[in-house]
Amino acid sequence: MTATIALIDDDRNILTSVGIALQAEGFTTRLYTDGETALKALLDNPPDLAVSDIKMPRLDGLEMLRRLREKSSLPVIFLTSKDDELDEALGLALGADDYIAKPFSQRLLIARIRAILRRVDLSKADPTEQSGPIPDPIVRGRLELDPARHRVHWAGANVTLTVTEFMILEALAQRPDVVKSRSQLMDVAYQDDTYVDDRTIDSHIKRLRRKFRAVDSQFDAIETLYGAGYRFSDG
């Protein structure tokens, strides 16, 4: 089935050029020039993924994402200006799945879109219909992580994660007390050979901690080893 991509940007030149590139790759596109119109459409008739600018009239991308995340886990890639580090950090903290700095190559954007859609497909697949062995659930202390069903529980409480967050947590939980460098976690979360800097992994870790602390204010199982990386401790 053809994936549908929503493109949201007040620059009509970007909408047109990116839309043409995506259609040439077999995607169906929907185009929006402001966040308010886009938000209603994303909720009423969700696409498979949204690509959005941050600075837009009527409703900017960050506020649009904040409202979207109250009701939906739809994958979102942000387009940002090259020097907008604060916007990138806020976007990831609010639940963006990725960001790409302008100016960007359409090839890079398409690679990111395909990577995220692959992860979403894997998370939705029926484990009983998968070929090969079905991975066993991972139990580490109060953590229960089911890779086959993309489910996570902490002390019995459900924790909803994006696909990228899930992959990072799984990599840490597979070998508790073993330090994973940012580079190793980037290899796990971004397997399409595209560039991702250290701040992206740090932002994902912050979001993971925030989500677990929402169900357990004392959560401290993901530890930072300054200068080395992160580890999961089930002690």
Quick structural summary:
With 235 residues, this protein is α/β, with parallel strands linked by helices.
What does this protein structure show overall?
The chain has 235 residues and is an alpha/beta fold. Helix content is 42%, strand content 20%. It has eight helices and eleven strands. It has helices at 12-24, 35-44, 61-69, 85-94, 106-124, 163-174, 182-189, 198-215, and strands spanning 4-8, 28-32, 49-53, 76-81, 98-102, 138-140, 143-146, 151-154, 157-158, 222-225, 229-232. A five-stranded parallel sheet has the order 2-1-3-4-5, with helices on both faces. It has a four-stranded antiparallel sheet with strand order 6-7-8-9, covered by helices on one side. Strands 10-11 form a two-stranded antiparallel ribbon. α6 packs across α7 (182-189) and α6 packs across α8 (198-215). The longest helix is centred in the middle third of the chain and has 19 residues, at 106-124. It is globular, with a radius of gyration of 18 Å.
Please give the radius of gyration in angstroms. 18 Å
Structural class, from helix and strand content?
alpha/beta
Overall mean pLDDT stands at: 86
Shape: globular
Q: What fraction of the residues are assigned to beta strands by DSSP?
A: 15-25%
Number of helices: 8
Q: How would you sum up the major sheet?
A: 5 strands, parallel
How would you spell out the order of helices and strands? EHEHEHEHEHEEEEHHHEE
Question: How many strand elements?
Answer: 11
The N- to C-terminal Cα distance equals 45 Å
**Widest β-sheet, arrangement of strands:** 2-1-3-4-5
Helix content: 40-55%
Report the uncertain regions: none
